[in-house]
Amino acid sequence: MPNSQIFSMKFSDIYRLYIQKSERKNRKKEEVDQIICWLTGYDWIELHQQINQGCNLETFFTQAPSIHPNASLIKGKVCGVRVEDIEDPLMQKIRYLDKLIDELAQGKTMEKILRK
């Protein structure tokens, strides 16, 4: 799928998929919210405003208050591609979030997921 198609996807649709994935693995919606807020700098209210407004992924990440400084510590593969090797900054942020949700679904502790 070309980047432009991914960037134009509604964040609310992706968010719903993150929740479904985590709940299938007995994790909580609140943990997904915590991960998203940690990565993007949104607080809970701002996060849910973005979801309710129906913004796309590009807008969601462009308007993010601040990407966490430890985001660069996120390593590994998503869809067969190493997140640390992705050159497009927006795509890298999207894949960082995908990787964090994968780690949640794999049963990692929040402390490890949030790179503490």
From TrEMBL:
It comes from the Bacteria. This is DUF2200 domain-containing protein. InterPro entries: SP1917_dom_sf, UCP033199. Pfam families: DUF2200.
